[in-house]
Design goal:
Largest sheet: 8 strands, mixed
Bound molecules: coenzyme A
Distance between the termini: 23 Å
Helix content: 25-40%
Number of helices: 11
Number of strands: 16
Structural class: alpha/beta
Length: 372
């Protein structure tokens, strides 16, 4: 596994402002990012990897100073000889605007008050995230992108990239994503937000660093975790197993948790240890506002305006972004191609089924002569 480091860059200077789609501005903008491989002399071998809701810039390798530490979230996809081969490509993964992993977001200091923005962080959209990534790539000297890819929210960014910067995007690989967020997904995001806001420690988002609505954030994650998997995967993994078995004396003991309950509690607390509630709210709202047609025209017209070849990947058991949505995306894109990951893991399969994903990505890049 390669050793990597998360870098950080200030993108505004000399009184510059970033005007956000929602109308407010940022006067200070830090972007955290990682890169793997080398930018070639023509500056045209870059691949942009966009992360999902709770992801970070740490997509591959292990971080400097943490030998053997947590591998990047897409490590099996990025590296020497892998789908995004760092012997050929310069892979960039930025942390998105509004996140809590180094890029400006609700946990950052508001220059106007000297205190964390918290709930006063301005609303951001996927288009704002993409604009910031574009500024980062310009700063890094990237001229064009072989491809822009990501799953879920990452796929939404890939779609916006192809629309906002068509001259820079030679191809896109949106995975298990949406052209506009469905009412089904918005509904799930909203109950997750309510779980956070109904926690007595929420205090309107004005909680001190390290404190806050931990129970609510944990519950939000548990709701999301169910939607990231499938009934078949839960049946196979947990069945009806209890932690202390099913003997008559413990059968009706509520402390004798089902394994699935224990798993969800654990995943909830794991997110609480690494994430922030205001950030969760800001980013889920950006996902819900995502609609490539907004202000541009019908979804059909906007999709048909995309010139770059696209590989749209669906996951057979995904209940969040079902395969019919991915097929429709591929059908609507003039140069769209649909491929499927056959998996029982649900939406999370884009973080698990690396062999299938690698085969699809390799074939697509080769077909379009983008792998050289
Ligand atoms: N009780 C308590 N904990 C349990 C458990 C149980 N019955 N069964 C498993 N676990 C724990 C394991 O000990 C392990 O802990 P660790 O992470 O500290 O090592 C953890 O659960 C494993 O999680 P699991 O979901 O089984 O991993 P996986 O290999 O199936 O999936 C990921 C890998 C990265 C996809 C998954 O861990 C994950 O993070 N999923 C959410 C990712 C996400 O945000 N997806 C949405 C994108 S929009």
């Amino acid at each position: 596994m390669e050793v990597t480091a998360t870098h950080s860059v200030e993108l505004l200077g000399g009184g510059e402002l970033l005007r956000l789609e929602g109308g407010r501005t940022l006067s200070q903008l830090t972007v955290a990012y990682e890169t793997y491989g080398t930018l070639n002399a023509a500056r045209d071998n870059a691949v942009l990897v966009c992360h999902a809701l709770t992801g970070s810039a740490h997509a591959a390798g292990h971080l400097e100073g943490h030998p053997g530490g947590a591998a990047g979230w897409w490590d099996p996809m990025i590296g020497s000889g892998k789908a995004f081969d760092t012997d050929r490509f310069f892979v960039v993964c930025p942390n998105i605007l509004g996140s809590c992993y180094g890029t400006t977001g609700p946990v950052s200091t508001d220059p106007a008050t000297g205190r964390p923005y918290g709930p006063s962080f301005p609303p951001v959209t996927v288009r704002d995230m993409v604009r910031v990534q574009h500024a980062l790539l310009r700063r890094l000297g990237v001229r064009s992108l072989r491809t822009v890819t990501g799953g879920s929210l990452g796929g939404m960014q890939a779609l916006e990239w192809a629309i906002m910067y068509p001259d820079m995007v030679r191809s896109l690989i949106p995975i298990a994503t949406a052209a506009s967020h469905s009412p089904w997904c918005i509904g799930l995001n909203e109950i997750a937000r309510q779980a956070i806001m109904l926690d007595p420690a929420w205090h309107g988002g004005e909680y001190p660093p390290g404190a806050g609505p931990h129970a609510g954030l944990s519950l939000a994650r548990q709701i999301a975790m169910i939607s990231y998997r499938s009934d078949r995967s839960f049946n196979l993994r947990f069945a009806r197993d209890r932690q202390q078995g099913n003997l008559p004396e413990v059968r009706c003991d509520p402390d004798n948790l089902f394994q699935v309950e224990s798993y969800l509690h654990y995943q909830g607390m794991k997110l609480v240890a690494r994430f922030d509630a205001n950030t969760y709210i800001a980013i889920t709202r950006a996902m819900d506002w995502h609609d490539i047609g907004y202000g541009r025209g019908t979804l059909e017209d906007v999709l048909s305006s995309v010139r770059s070849p696209a590989l749209c990947v669906g996951i057979t058991s995904d209940v969040l972004y079902p395969v019919h949505e991915q097929r429709a995306l591929a059908d609507g894109l003039p140069r769209g191609m649909y491929r499927e990951i056959d998996s029982l893991h649900g939406h999370d399969a884009f973080l698990i089924e690396f062999e299938q994903l690698t085969a699809h990505v390799r074939a697509f890049l080769k077909t379009h002569g983008l792998d050289g």
